[in-house]
Amino acid sequence: MTFNGNWKVDRNDNYEKFMEQMGINMVKRKLAAHDNLKITIEQNGDSFHVKESSNFRTVEIDFTLGVTFDYSLADGTELSGSWKLEGDVLTGTFNRKDNGKQLITTRIVQGDELIQSYNYEGVDAKRIFKRA
Ligand SMILES: CCCCCCCCCCCCCC(=O)O
After folding, report:
1. Do the interacting molecules here have an ipTM over 0.85?
2. Which residues form the Cytosolic fatty-acid binding proteins domain (predicted)?
């Protein structure tokens, strides 16, 4: 499966602006921009197991494509939404529980990189991962 493996964040694109739009304060943004995020993805058909570890926390998430689940960001912001897979693009559509606003995220593998894109209230960002 395309996404399977261990990934470590290599660089960010516009991530600070994105976090600012999300309402994250400057101190947390500075820390989060260098969070040493690692994700391990295991896909088995429509089922995914994701292990996320960073300077902030380690969490394990299970989800099924098309099925809504809850997820909390490292700062405690709660989201609810689901992932879908179209071709080689994973698209997650989530809503914040505190204000109802939508956060869209995609994952694609390009060459030896996994690119995760984010959009929130008109601000786009990317985090680019390399195989760990
Ligand atoms: C301010 C930091 C914002 C980071 C946005 C993360 C969006 C994550 C969407 C949901 C992820 C579900 C679990 C997963 O597949 O890794």
Report:
1. yes
2. 5-22
What is the SS3 string spanning the chain?
Answer: CCCCEEEEEEEEECHHHHHHHCCCCHHHHHHHCCCCCEEEEEEECCEEEEEEECCCCEEEEEEECCCCEEEECCCCCEEEEEEEEECCEEEEEEEECCCCCEEEEEEEEECCEEEEEEEECCEEEEEEEEEC
pLDDT greater than 90 at residue 1? no
Task: Express each pLDDT in 90-106 by its tens digit.
Answer: 999 999 999 999 999 99
Ligand 1, atom 1: closest residue by C-alpha: 19
Write down the CATH number for the domain with range 5-131: 2.40.128.20
Sketch the domain layout of the chain as residue ranges: 5-131
